Amino acid sequence: MLIGVPKEIKNHEYRIGLTPASARELVGRGHQVMIETQGGAEIGFEDQAYLDAGASIVATAEEIFAKADMIVKVKEPQPHECRQLRAGQILFTYLHLAADSLQAQLLAESGATCIAYETVTDARGALPLLAPMSEVAGRLSVQAGAYHLQKAQGGMGALLGGVPGVAPAKVVVIGGGVVGTQAASMAIGLGADVTILDRSLPRLRQLDVEFSGRVKCVYSSIDAIEQHALEADLVVGAVLIPGAAAPKLLTQELIARMKKGAVVVDVAIDQGGCFETSKATTHQDPTYVVEEVIHYCVANMPGAVARTSTMALNNATLPFVLALADKGAEQAMQADEHLFAGLNVYQGQITCEAVAKALDMPYVKPVALLETVRAA
Prior knowledge:
By secondary structure, the chain is α/β, with parallel strands linked by helices.
């Protein structure tokens, strides 16, 4: 199979779909790999490293989209990239369609087989291709929050860990999954007073054990969110409903009552955001202010540490890339129900129920659609 990797084009996005080591694995299995020139140069993956791995370097993304059997990316394709996809081509990347009706429509019109990293599952029901970036984003959320709490950045001028004689800042993490756990870990490391809110009692018990009582574990309710948000210096939104739009947990009315100069970091912004006042921002212009509260809503947070993120992501995605290359999309998905769970768009139809519901678009069960295609 011919696998193509275009350069990412979102604002300050330096990650790349395949590292030279991953390209070498594919070439070693008899596949061809095309990399857009300078695709990984910003993070130390020079063209020569890909050539040494057996890949070829091409001048333009257009050539990759025109020739490749499978496109491997990091971020969702932009509209003009979607329009270059074609029927039967495989797209394997993050999609986050629940908050992007235009992308969903364009992908459906392309006829491509679109598999989303964020809905691939594992035997435990977890999301193994989302986890590495969630780990990065969780850690970065506190780092970013601490920075923007500084007075020079518009914050209230609070130090997360305080100093002897001065109480530490209060950090509230909404959601006890991978993002929330990593955020809490970073906040504890910086000496903050940390509270995690989650709706799963078993998960709260696990977190209480994991953090040895150093984190307050609170059942998430409207009342609890209000109480803790009003006391917080930093709130991290870390909720996730796989494939679906994030619920709005902080209203604008609540934001208006928070401490002036507090910071909110919305890690769920790729799925529409979990704060009513959230709107996607970029690394170039990461924050804005609503009701005197600093909002950090960068949609590709892991891109800030692109080399670490690329290597962590490839560790997780490579086995699936190899399976798709070796077997083709249909056979690979039939052989692996967890990869099959990643199928979001196929034969012009939305095949992820949560996405279809979020966008109010028709949903087609992927099993039935695969059977129809196979019969034809």
